[in-house]
Amino acid sequence: MPRADSVGTVPVTVVTAGGRADGVSYTYEANPVTTGLDPTSGPASGGTAVVSDTEIVAVAPPEVAGAADIVIQSPGSNADMPSAYTYLAGPGI
């Protein structure tokens, strides 16, 4: 299947030694896009429910304190938000 220049349905013709099939279609879907999330930070221990502006809900796993990239993966491509979430260090004792 060739890559599409835009989103939409295209006609497909299947040709085999046994014959030809017309009237088949294939739909190219839009790549994932996100521009924000809430909250943008949480504890390094993880467990914070994070919601993107496209209503994807994820739970932040434990991680060291600092900035983290958000990557939403799909079969066609990824939506990347570099340093969009910050893991916060716990209070010192």
Write up what this structure looks like.
The chain is an all-beta fold and 93 residues long. It has a domain at 37-88. It contains no helices and 8 strands. It has strands at residues 8-16, 19-28, 37-38, 41-43, 49-52, 57-59, 66-73, 78-88. The strands form 3 sheets. Strands 3-5-6 form a 3-stranded antiparallel β-sheet, with no helix packed on it. Strands 4-8-7 form a 3-stranded mixed β-sheet, with no helix packed on it. A two-stranded antiparallel ribbon has the order 1-2. The protein starts with 7 loop residues before the first strand and ends in a 5-residue tail after the last strand. The mean pLDDT is 86.
List the helices and strands and how they pair.
Blueprint: E1 8-16, E2 19-28, E3 37-38, E4 41-43, E5 49-52, E6 57-59, E7 66-73, E8 78-88
Parallel strand pairs: 4-8
Antiparallel strand pairs: 1-2, 3-5, 5-6, 7-8
